[in-house]
Amino acid sequence: MSITMVLSSQTKPVMASSNKTRNNFSSNNHPVCTRTNQILALILITTTFFLTRTFNQYCPNNYSSSFINKSSSQDLYFINNGWPNRGFGNQLSLKIYVYEENEIDGLKELMYGRDGQITVDSCLKGQWGTQVKMHQMLLKSRFRTLKKEEADLFFVPTYVKCVRMMGGLTDKEINSTYVKEFYNPELGSRIPAAFDSRFSFLFSGAGAHIFRSWPKFLNRSIILTPEGDRTDKRDTSAFNTWKDIIIPGNVDDSMTRYGASLVEPLPLSKRKFLANFLGRVQGKVGRVELVELAKNFPSKLESPELKLSGSEKLGRKEYFEHLRNAKFCLAPRGESSWTLRFYESFFVECVPVILSDQVELPFQDVVDYSQISIKWPSTHIGPQLLDYLESIPDKEIDAMIARGRQVRCLYAYAPETEPCSAFVGILWELQRKVRQFHQSAETFWFHNGSIINRNLVQFHKWKPPMPLP
């Protein structure tokens, strides 16, 4: 809603003999436009203009107007403006069908394990919590539809990373259960996920490789994952920019929620270390180098090897208290290119330093990461890195932290009602994947719109394996 005042005026030549005209106006009881009237009118117009701007700012007339600023390529993030209309559209307009757990054979096992003993609450914790959070938010979303025929996208929920980590299914069981979910040799495809780019799956750890037959059954589906690694150890990346979406990792809710967080940031002047790395080494080259560097420069770099259990294991609060005690939080590569510390650093207001050459980051069409983080070559981990970080004035560090403070809401899995959250950002990314027409090197079509494969077989008769698009 906005208040609009339209002023229309016609200007006519004023002659010396216009006194008679003025007298006629007066005689007809029309008010004379005095200098005072003009000043009052100007004040009214000015007041109306500013009231309208203020009212529109706090009462946006569509959902998109309260997201990302698009007024300047130099602007990073301002809450009360719109997401850039750069292939996204100017407002969210999606219909997503969410499969029920009893709707597909095998789906319950992928959510709760073979015995159904894995709980939803236990899967909310840790890096894999995104699988549960996205599912729960989609179930409550105003963009959810219960009608398959009107859906733009189909979401198939699984908590498979959590189920695997908690012993609910083995790798072999995960693969066979997924296969059973998608394909029955006698009945054919249960859901056409491998062939239909409208289907989306979320893998919050190990990427789609946790289901080793993904190239056969999910090669056209949209994969939501923090694992944007194109150089993984299987030499076949499960991430494809043609169809997939990088999502933020799952930062502990106690640090991202509105109001008081578990641990508050420290002023730069009170931080003990220049930089830190808080993670398990696991024999990874970059991490080993950081531990050795910390031994040589203990006053500058804190890098204890974190333990999984025992008296040396850091509690949740202790971990974040350590993380906030440095100006720079180092984020080296682990099993794959991404690390949760990159996202956690924004909530303790520590500038993240990426030491992972192949990393892919979420919302790269919206966020200018060079303004809020540093990316340093992993081949140059050593004293040179510490010298560089030490050369950056606190004034510039503060400026980077302030810009990071503006965008960090995009890394929090807050409800859809919040104007800025990872969930809403992912919805925008999904919207850009919704196309009226999908084509690749392995899709063809007839004059009547029927989609066929290279052997002229129509879509509903396709059988795996299919070549990648």
From TrEMBL:
Keyword entries, A-Z: Glycosyltransferase, Golgi apparatus, Signal-anchor, Transferase, Transmembrane
Compartments (UniProt record): Golgi apparatus membrane
Q: Where is the Exostosin GT47 domain?
A: 93-381
What topology does it adopt in the membrane? Single-pass type II membrane protein
Q: Which InterPro entries match?
A: Exostosin (IPR004263), Exostosin_GT47 (IPR040911)
Q: Which GO terms describe its molecular function?
A: glycosyltransferase activity
Q: Which GO terms describe its cellular component?
A: Golgi membrane
What domain of life? Eukaryota
- Predominantly, its location class is Golgi
What family classification does the UniProt entry report for this protein? Answer: Belongs to the glycosyltransferase 47 family.
* Protein name according to UniProt: Exostosin GT47 domain-containing protein
From which organism does this entry originate? Papaver somniferum
